[in-house]
Amino acid sequence: MIGYYQTDQGKVRVHNEDAGGVFHNDAGQTLAIVADGMGGHQAGDVASQMTTSHLHTKWQEVEKIETPDDAEKWIKETVLAANNEIKTYANEHEECAGMGTTVVVALCTEQFATIGHIGDSRCYFANAYGFNAITEDHSLVNELVRSGQITEEQAEHHPRKNVLLKAIGTEYDLTADVKTLEFEEDDRLLLCTDGLTNKVTDEELRELQNHQGDWADFTQKMVDLANERGGEDNITLAVVHHCQLPSDEKEGAE
């Protein structure tokens, strides 16, 4: 299984508040994380880094995930613990008041992938049969679209497009939405922040489905597209490809 992670500051922001990584355990299972920090006095990077670090640390303690139920339980419990840790930290550190982060996590085994998320960072799934978003944004505009109050086209330019209904660290006891998919040879997952999806269309992201070769080329192409179109936000993405890992291949950079 190959995982690749890339983050870019973009063209406008003075620092990068995104975080994440791709991590493997001794059983060859993969955990991919993407987090988009926000709020506080430049403390968004604190929230996203804390979330990533918490999940990574807990993942290092996992010998092997055997079942989808185990995977879903692990994600829910670990994300909940990270959320409460960050909320407490923000309460105790005035400079971090109001900070939070999105998170999207993929726990991938040879048989299945379990996805958990809070916020509007997304996960897309591609296989021989298609390419689909498998997360639902926890955002105001998505709720307005779901309830039929605005169209998807109107949502693209809505003045409150960036308003989130859920984010890590904003209140205690938030639970991630989770779902499990069959994960078979040559299936691919893409996790990404809205710095990518606000600039690159789903049709362009569909290249995930048929990409051959180095995943660094794919992720760099997507980053370049977002930056060419303004790059007003940080841009972060992670790919997990269900394939045989060459013996000299190393895990994606943290």
Query: What share of the residues does DSSP label as strand, in percent?
Result: 25-35%
Indicate the percent of residues in helices. Answer: 25-40%
- Rounded average pLDDT: 92
CATH superfamily: PPM-type phosphatase domain
CATH architecture descriptor text: 4-Layer Sandwich
**Which secondary-structure class do the elements indicate?**
alpha+beta
Distance between the termini: 16 Å
Q: What name does the CATH topology carry?
A: Phosphatase 2c, domain 1
- Count every helix, treating DSSP H or I runs of 4 or more residues as helices: 7
- Could you describe the largest sheet, including whether it forms a barrel? 6 strands, antiparallel
* DSSP strand count: 11
**Helices and strands, in N-to-C order?**
EEEHHEEEEEHHEEHHHE
**Overall tally of structural domains:** 1
C-alpha geometry: globular
3D architecture notes:
It holds the Pfam family PP2C_2. GO terms for molecular function: metal ion binding; protein serine/threonine phosphatase activity. InterPro entries: PP2C (IPR015655), PPM-type-like_dom_sf (IPR036457), PPM-type_phosphatase-like_dom (IPR001932). With 254 residues, this protein is an alpha+beta fold. It has a single domain, classed as PPM-type phosphatase domain (Phosphatase 2c, domain 1, 4-Layer Sandwich), CATH 3.60.40. The chain is built from seven helices and eleven strands. The chain has helices spanning 44-60, 68-92, 140-146, 152-156, 194-197, 202-205, 215-228, and strands at 2-8, 18-24, 30-38, 100-101, 103-108, 112-118, 122-127, 130-133, 177-182, 188-192, 235-241. The strands form two sheets. Strands 2, 3, 4, 5, 6 and 9 form a six-stranded antiparallel β-sheet that branches. Helix 1 packs antiparallel against helix 2.
